[in-house]
Design brief:
The protein is mainly α. Helices cover 49% and strands 4% of the residues. The chain contains 3 helices and 2 strands. A hairpin with a 5-residue loop joins strand 1 and strand 2. The longest helix is centred in the N-terminal third of the chain and has 26 residues. The radius of gyration is 18 Å and the shape is elongated. The N and C termini lie far apart (63 Å).
Length: 92
């Protein structure tokens, strides 16, 4: 018996612009969730905090902040400024 043909993996991204747009959307959603939390609580969310956005979806805001910190060398100046204005200390 011959083994069956293995399906070939498809690329995760088909073009770079789509990936950049998706990243921008994710950043915008994260900022929306962070603004909402800071306005309500007056502080930064904890690592495990989940924020419910106005559209009813959940956003892991605390995890998102940690991910942004890990990727801060990839954030542009405007993104860093936005985070700093919201009180994210490492973005200053």
């Amino acid at each position: 018996m011959k083994p069956g043909a293995r399906p070939q993996k498809t690329a995760a991204r088909t073009n770079a612009k789509a990936g950049a747009a998706k990243g921008s959307d994710a950043f915008t959603r994260g900022v929306t969730a962070l603004k909402q939390y800071v306005e309500r609580e007056g502080a930064m969310p904890g690592r495990g905090h989940i924020e419910v956005l106005p559209d009813g979806t959940e956003h892991r805001t605390g995890i998102w902040i940690g991910n942004q910190k890990a990727r801060r060398d990839k954030l542009d100046a405007e993104q860093l400024r936005t985070l700093a204005e919201l009180g994210v200390e490492w973005a200053v």
